[in-house]
Amino acid sequence: MSETLTHPPSQDSAPESRPHRWAVWRSPAGQPAWARPALLGIALVAAVLYAWNLRLVDYAPRYADAVKSMSGSWRAFLYGAVDPEATYTLDKLAGSFVPQVVSAKIFGYHAWSLALPQVIEGVIAVLVMYRVVRRWVGVVPGLLAAGIFTLTPVAASMFGHSMEDGALVMCLVLAVDAYQRAVLEGRLRSLIGAGVWVGLGFQAKMVQAWMILPALAVGYLLTAPIELRRRVRHLGAAGAVMLAVSLSWVMLYTLTPASDRPYISGTTNNNAFAMVFGYNGLGRVGINLPGAEEVNGRNGVPAPGPLGGPEGEGQRGTVGTKAQDQRGTVGTKAQDQRGTVGTKAQDQRGTVGTKAQDQKGMVGPKAHGGPPMGPGALPEGYESKMESRADPMGWTKLFDGHLGVAIGWLFPLTLLALLCGLWWRRRAERTDPVRGGLVMWGVWLVTFGFVFSASAVAHTAYVASLAPAIAAVSALGIVMFGRAYRRGGRQGWILPLAVAVQLAWAAWLWSHYPNFLPWARWGTLLLGVAALVGLVLARVTRTASSALVAAALAVGVGVMLAAPATYAVSVLDPDYSGNSFDANAGPASGTA
Length: 592
Prior knowledge:
With 592 residues, this protein is mainly α. It has 21 helices and no strands. The two termini are 43 Å apart.
């Protein structure tokens, strides 16, 4: 395995590149001349894909209201208030909306200007993914990782809509970029930078940003080229900075008297910690903290929340039993503006009554994990969104249905690359960066995958946090298996195995929506079988020409990536591009 993949030295700055530092199309010294143009081409594809539907995007109800209020009032901006008078917030931190507020101040308040920051965040994430993986294992895996990340279906939809998940994913990628510098050199400053990025990600999506911490901590402790005591001290210092950045808004609320600030939605006691760590934290896995409202996931119709207090208390948020509470705690006959409603009302968050319209495009039992949407339940002209089986809602939710086609296409390749990479480098020294990277990415996948499997995934965009790890590991696997195939020996059979398993897995996932581009599905399968036959024959006969081997390799890699790419590119059709509450591409868009 030592010949299969060697760790390339960092080429982030070289004297030869300084005369051309403004010529962004030129590759830096130490990289092939085609590397930078190829990267810019991938970034251009990402920009087009993410920005294609900007003119058609929708406002995210309530979230867009918060942006409008924050862009017109400094007090509302500071506290993340929904109304200009800053009397109540949503169940989100103010940092969730800052990029959109800045865009609205520059371009005006429009649906497209609220989505534009996510397009920019997506392109930044693509560029940084290349740098992260190139520094780790080389240029070709770096370009592959950037391309795979670009063409992840959930990312293709998410970065085109006004949702804070895009900022989280960008911050996670930037955190890994800083971490990587730290782990390669044992550099405290870079590790603190990673902590800052995680803290900023916390401002966007709260506790979900912290789910990356086990991966970074384990990777640094295992691989950093300094003694154990210094590694532990570095992690402690970076952790303290991360906590300070993460909890800055929470402490602002906690230290400000309740009478001088807005009421915090998602709570029954107006406590920021209850909102962040209860309603948006442990509540997502079924653990209810005191003061946190009950979390309404995808698995049932929520009951109206408790009343906010005595009749008439407060200017806008605490109301009588029959009145509308603008904070989101309502009586049984009132409308809840946060999406917790009666059984016949419209739920804007995706959990709906049996007679209600689901704003994400479908209705009824799909929201509760019930029967699939067959032809009779679909509007005319939407037959391509017909499902062949029920959408799983339990521990297997990531392996089929709307979440499977959003993020799960490359699970087999990713798992195979992790197992083979770790086994082939099992005798490497402790500081081996390739093995250390595999451990870090592996812990990332296990942590996020476990939490998503154990909890209710209310919005498809949540699972986009898996995309960076999947892109990095699967890109490494493609290059690693390709080089092993060319060398021959027993390891050479791993690539045909990967192609075969990926073909079978893609056929399974795609069969959930059998009417979606059937010609592409069957074309991919036929090309995959042809590539598989070519790969096997070249290994068995040992007399195949180099051109045949190269063609079989190229087609084999192409068919492994064809299914997610097809789903991702489908966002160019507005009917398959998702919306501000459902970041998904293809036939699953609007059905979750």
